[in-house]
Design a protein that fits this description.
- By secondary structure, the chain is mostly helical.
- The chain contains eight helices and no strands.
- α2 packs antiparallel against α3 and α5 runs antiparallel to α7.
- The radius of gyration is 19 Å and the shape is elongated.
- The two termini are 30 Å apart.
């Protein structure tokens, strides 16, 4: 669970710092510059620790650089505001692969949870991320920066954490029932 929280924070870090810097300074240039710098530092850290860099991480860095540069050049925050939509849609597409979640679960879960349950949870995550991507796009294009900031930092992250907690609770309940039945 701790690793999942770290991953959500890492994935959202450039957007969160973009929000904070823009809210504090009012400077799109500084906010977008920080977002780009954070993306580069995260990638450098992965390289220095010799961890593999996933294609999604390359894509995220590319988006931060391209959209951050567009934000700085045009002085329009909407470029950075649509980045989460592109990321959510991309991740949702990957999550449509049947059984993607299986490799992330501990052995005890794999032995005791029916595979269709795990597959359904994976599809539910894909649906959730697609819905968050659509919501972000709508809010980024129709509302002001403050509304978007609240959505992306509280609404989007909070929804993912709540979904993770719900999945954890459901999986744990099923797991306990299966283990108790096997002990009889």
């Amino acid at each position: 669970m701790k690793q999942a929280f770290r991953q959500v924070l890492s994935d959202s870090l450039s957007a969160i710092l973009f929000l904070v810097v823009y809210a504090v300074t009012g400077s799109l240039f500084a906010a977008a510059g920080i977002a780009v710098a954070v993306g580069l530092v995260q990638l450098a850290r992965l390289r220095l620790t010799r961890r593999g860099i996933e294609p999604m991480q390359w894509m995220s860095l590319g988006l931060v650089i391209v959209l951050g540069s567009a934000t700085m050049l045009t002085q329009n925050p909407r470029f950075m505001m649509i980045k989460p939509t592109i990321v959510h849609f991309s991740v949702a597409t990957v999550m449509l692969r049947r059984g993607w979640m299986i490799r992330y679960l501990p052995e005890i879960v794999l032995r005791n949870l029916p595979e269709p349950t795990i597959v359904a949870a994976g599809y539910a995550w894909a649906g959730l991320l697609a819905a968050l991507g659509l919501a972000n796009l709508f809010i980024a294009l129709r509302f002001d920066f403050t509304t978007w900031a609240w959505f992306i930092s509280v609404g989007s992250v909070g929804t993912k954490l709540a979904a993770f907690g719900l999945q954890y609770g459901v999986f744990r309940t099923i797991l306990r029932q299966r283990i108790a039945q096997a002990a009889m």
